Model the fold of this input.
Amino acid sequence: MIPKTHPRYESLLLREKIVKASEKGYLADSAMIAHGRGEAFDYLIGEKTTYPAKRAMYVAVAALLLSDNPVISVNGNATALAIDEIIELAREINAKIEINLFYRTDERVQIITSLFRDRGYKEILGTLDDDIEYFTDIKNSRSSASKSGIYTADTILIPLEDGDRAEILKKSGKNIITIDLNPLSRTSKMSDVSIMDNIVRAIPFMTKIAKDLKTQDKKVLMDMVNDFDNEENLKESIEQIKIRGI
Ligand code: PTJ
Done:
């Protein structure tokens, strides 16, 4: 039991979630390393949502609301840290959710499927019985996607995504939004909108934004998307690390 007075209370709670998920058997072997990397970057930004991240989140939600077939991609870490919040966001923006594992095994897919279905989210995609398509001639799990989900999606939210997989999705012509605490990652650099924030803060904040933006005129949303410069925003995100580090 972690005392609430502990200065690193929130951060330790997240570690506990990751450990429990690992015990349940649905995390990748390297999930804790990925989490630790994220934690280090979060520490550098003071574990708070920065202004450039907020700006990116507004643009991301606008892009998702404008899309015909938006999909939220989930892996082991995202499920462990924010499953309820992801379901809430998906319902708010009318997006699908697809299990998309970098280290895909039937066992992991099965456990994650059950976690979503147990919460009443029956329409989860990327399951063992889903219709799978491949983006490239090389038929491996890196290039696989659900036919009615990521394969035909126009915009995909990919939290904590590996660079190789992000590259395949980008090359297939998708509009890519990432939530990644590392602004220097390949995924952050190649995405159309990169949110340098912790998934546990970003997803609920995006749901709030969606409630607000849903009533906006399409033209306003389109202007938000068109006026956004991801490279510039990432530079500002890196500046935030420098500012807080002084
Ligand atoms: O469940 P799987 O098989 O799909 O595997 C998931 C991991 C995360 C292990 C896999 O995709 C992987 O190896 O990812 P990477 O290449 O380590 O990239 C993960 C990125 O997420 C890193 O840049 C981390 O800094 C970042 N990250 C880690 N935790 C968080 C985070 N970003 C936002 N919020 C976090 N809590």
User: Anything to note?
Assistant: Residues 2 and 9 are 7 Å apart (CA to CA). The chain has a mean pLDDT of 95. Strands lie at 70-74, 96-99, 132-134, 144-146, 155-159, 175-179, 193-195. The chain has one domain: 51-245.
